[in-house]
Amino acid sequence: MTAITIKNLVVSRGDSKVLQSISFEVQPGSVYALLGGNGAGKSTSLLTLLGFLKPDSGSVTVLGHDVTKDIAKIRHTIAYLPEAATLYPHLNAYENLSYFLELAGNKKTRAELDTALDEVGLQVDARARHMDNYSKGMRQKVAIALSILRETPVLLLDEPTSGLDPVAIDEFNALVRKLSGQGKTILMVTHDVYGACQVADRIGLLRRGELVGSFDAQAGARIDTEIVHAAFAERAAA
Ligand SMILES: Nc1ncnc2c1ncn2[C@@H]1O[C@H](COP(=O)(O)OP(=O)(O)OP(=O)(O)O)[C@@H](O)[C@H]1O
Ligand SMILES: [Mg+2]
């Protein structure tokens, strides 16, 4: 069974068709990067997978569940990192994580929170400080930690590396590969060609709501950045 199956999906927002009959599959334990420019429809795709937007036509299934019928089941299997994750500035990292995990019915010990914060590389001395004096990258690390701590089989990540510096991006990429190695299915959307090539087993190129190309990692090698960049630039100019 595929982890995520999107078939002939059409989604409108307002008067415009934002997704124009896109189809792709994500295999269990793999990393799929949906790559596209601003306004291509990346976030719309994730919102449809979460049941927040209704398809005009086509189908969306997650681990065999149909998004229009079994949304409660689907939401238990998915952790979602939104494009602009909002955490409470007057709470510290531990308090934010505990609060949102409890809302999701998922209590964790301080040691478990520290393990996740270690994995995303948030400095130890910042963890008990209110998040209102965090940098954007530090806030993003806590948001990523939260999605890992949900311990769901599927992760949907919207621009996860936005705001991270190159070292933090490398750490994030290594973490994504590790999670995939543990069997998690990861669908991330990004406009970062380099980052997508570093982590993805497959890249789908989205342009104005249409899937116009796909690229696969070959055994033992990552996807070639130059090839994808050229396709991205060419398609964007077309
Ligand atoms: N709430 C909305 N109502 C109507 N149209 C919307 C709404 N949100 C987004 N759109 C339109 O849908 C299209 C796709 O938007 P979407 O947010 O999915 O793009 P994206 O690929 O995530 O872009 P970005 O890289 O900027 O995050 C855009 O043309 C946008 O104008
Ligand atoms: Mg977006």
From TrEMBL:
It comes from the Bacteria. It holds the Pfam family ABC_tran. CDD domains: ABC_DR_subfamily_A. Residues 4-233 form the ABC transporter domain. Keywords: ATP-binding, Nucleotide-binding, Transport. InterPro entries: AAA+_ATPase (IPR003593), ABC_transporter-like_ATP-bd (IPR003439), ABC_transporter-like_CS (IPR017871), ABC_Transporter_VariousFunc (IPR051782), P-loop_NTPase (IPR027417). GO terms for molecular function: ATP binding; ATP hydrolysis activity. PROSITE patterns: ABC_TRANSPORTER_1, ABC_TRANSPORTER_2. This is ABC-2 type transport system ATP-binding protein.
